[in-house]
């Protein structure tokens, strides 16, 4: 890759411990919150979270991936490394399958609202001017292909900061935290003038959902 963004956060508090973008180094670190990108497969855990959260399927339920191809509304989706045959939801996530048939059980509203709850399509609240919200279109603006595309991380754009905070919610038992760059401000004598305490934006999914997903990701 010719460029990249690195964020290190504490998922328990929302604290940003490091943020840098390359090329450019520390001076261009704000690209992590001003420059959205199409996330692709890195969005799949949140599709799985929506499936579990809405009771559409369990991690043990399976769907036929055929030869690793799926034709949806005139477009054929392909698995990069097809396993073929029936894959459980857990296996589909582990192998990053693009044959997202189990996601068809979600209504457009459920799919949209679950992604929105993870913080996609809205600014994070970090309080820095120029932060981008990314793009998550409302269901009434979707095409016939949108639900399938969105399930595997396309037709959406996110910032690296949004993605880091969303993954933090999975690591934090389903609680989305507000990102913080500054823990506290001290005066010249070392006395605390202002302390920024951790703030939970919302509980996105139950802890039981994250317990199902996180073992597949590590």
Please characterize this protein's 3D structure:
There is one protein chain. With 218 residues, the chain is an alpha+beta fold. It has a single domain, classed as 3-Layer(aba) Sandwich (Beta-lactamase), CATH 3.40.710. It is 27% helix and 20% strand. It contains seven helices and ten strands. Strands 1-2 form a two-stranded antiparallel ribbon. A two-stranded antiparallel sheet has the order 3-6. The longest helix has 12 residues. The chain is elongated and about 70 Å long.
Quick overview:
This protein has 218 residues and is of the alpha+beta class.
How far is the N terminus from the C terminus? 23 Å
CATH homologous superfamily annotation: DD-peptidase/beta-lactamase superfamily
Helix-strand makeup class: alpha+beta
Kindly give the count of domains: 1
Mean pLDDT: 93
The order of strands across the largest sheet is 1-2
What form results from the Cα inertia axes? elongated
Main sheet overview: 2 strands, antiparallel
What sequence of helices (H) and strands (E) makes up the elements?
A: EEHHEEEEHHHHEEEEH
Q: Residue ranges: pLDDT <50 for 5 or more in a row?
A: none
Overall CATH class: Alpha Beta
Rg to the nearest angstrom? 19 Å
From the 3D structure, determine the CATH topology: Beta-lactamase
Helix content: 25-40%
CATH architecture: 3-Layer(aba) Sandwich
Count all strands and give the number: 10
